């Protein structure tokens, strides 16, 4: 009986070690907001092996619009950034991957004038900034080294003052988070680096292409910079 128990324990530890080595050898990319317009374009480019070819797996986050893909390299994870408990579940699932790059496209672009009800304004701010900060803070504590490509909005430089008042505030808050993170000791010790992209109006395929090519370039050189495109 003892011999059998020893053999079972030995096999379990061996398999666990092999799995750990496998995880460490693979290089994975997390795309937040992968079901949006820019996200779908980037996923299509990945499927056609045009960008981000150095990664083994892609974890595609979505909220309501599920992404259609049959590739074994794509792993779909649902999460509503409005709820912190859903973010906790997302973080737990991310433990199965060796994430080296995070592309954050997650954003709710909705009309939100200053007269909008506070409950709705608060929900937008939590979804677009506070809970995203919560996610990144958890990942910084959990992971040792990764690069973030954060796609924001040109409204941070020229805020939408009327129809999109609370939207602009929510994105400005996330920008402030990254500016402060730049000087954070823990993030620097762990080599947490990031670049910020501020796209202007995204209307045509060439706009999507410009963003995807820049993301591909940054995924290789990890250059920390602010880009307005």
Written description of the protein model:
β1, α2 and β2 (57-62) form a beta-alpha-beta unit. α2 (37-47) crosses α7 (205-221) and α3 runs parallel beside α4 (118-142). The protein is globular. With 229 residues, the protein is α/β, with parallel strands linked by helices. The protein is built from seven helices and seven strands; from the N terminus they run αβαββαβαβααβαβ. It starts with a helix and ends with a strand.
Describe the structure concisely for a colleague.
The chain has helices at residues 2-25, 37-47, 84-94, 118-142, 165-181, 185-189, 205-221; strands spanning 28-32, 57-62, 74-78, 99-104, 146-151, 192-198, 226-228. Strands 3-2-1-4-5-6-7 form a seven-stranded parallel sheet, with helices on both faces. It has a single domain, classed as Rossmann fold (3-Layer(aba) Sandwich), CATH 3.40.50.
Topology (SSEs and partners):
Blueprint: H1 2-25, E1 28-32, H2 37-47, E2 57-62, E3 74-78, H3 84-94, E4 99-104, H4 118-142, E5 146-151, H5 165-181, H6 185-189, E6 192-198, H7 205-221, E7 226-228
Parallel strand pairs: 1-2, 1-4, 2-3, 4-5, 5-6, 6-7
Helix pairs in contact: 2-7, 3-4, 4-5
The named CATH superfamily? NAD(P)-binding Rossmann-like Domain
Helix/strand-derived class?
alpha/beta
Helices and strands, in N-to-C order?
HEHEEHEHEHHEHE
- Total number of β-strand segments? 7
The CATH topology corresponds to Rossmann fold
CATH class reads Alpha Beta
Task: Considering the chains and any ligands shown, give keywords for the structure.
7 helices; alpha/beta; 7 strands; Rossmann fold
């Amino acid at each position: 009986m003892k011999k059998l128990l020893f053999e079972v324990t030995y096999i379990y530890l061996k398999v666990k070690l092999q799995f750990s080595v496998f995880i460490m050898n693979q290089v994975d990319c997390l795309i937040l907001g992968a079901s949006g317009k820019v996200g779908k374009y980037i996923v299509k480019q990945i499927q056609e092996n045009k960008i981000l070819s150095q990664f083994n797996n892609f974890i595609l986050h979505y909220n309501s619009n599920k992404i259609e893909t049959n590739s074994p390299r794509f792993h779909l994870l649902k999460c509503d950034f409005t709820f912190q408990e859903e973010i906790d579940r997302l973080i737990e699932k991310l433990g199965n991957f060796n994430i080296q790059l995070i592309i954050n496209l997650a954003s709710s672009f909705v009309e939100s004038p200053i007269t909008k009800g506070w409950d709705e304004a608060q929900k937008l701010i939590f979804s677009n900034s506070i809970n995203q900060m919560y996610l990144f803070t958890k990942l910084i504590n959990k992971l040792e080294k990764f690069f973030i490509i954060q796609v924001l909005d040109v409204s941070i430089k020229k805020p939408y003052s009327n129809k999109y008042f609370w939207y602009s505030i929510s994105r400005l808050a996330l920008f402030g988070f990254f500016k402060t993170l730049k000087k954070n000791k823990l993030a620097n010790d762990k080599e947490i680096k990031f670049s910020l992209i501020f796209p202007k109006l995204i209307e045509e395929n060439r706009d999507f292409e410009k963003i995807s090519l820049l993301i591909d370039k940054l995924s290789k050189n990890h250059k920390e910079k602010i880009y307005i495109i």
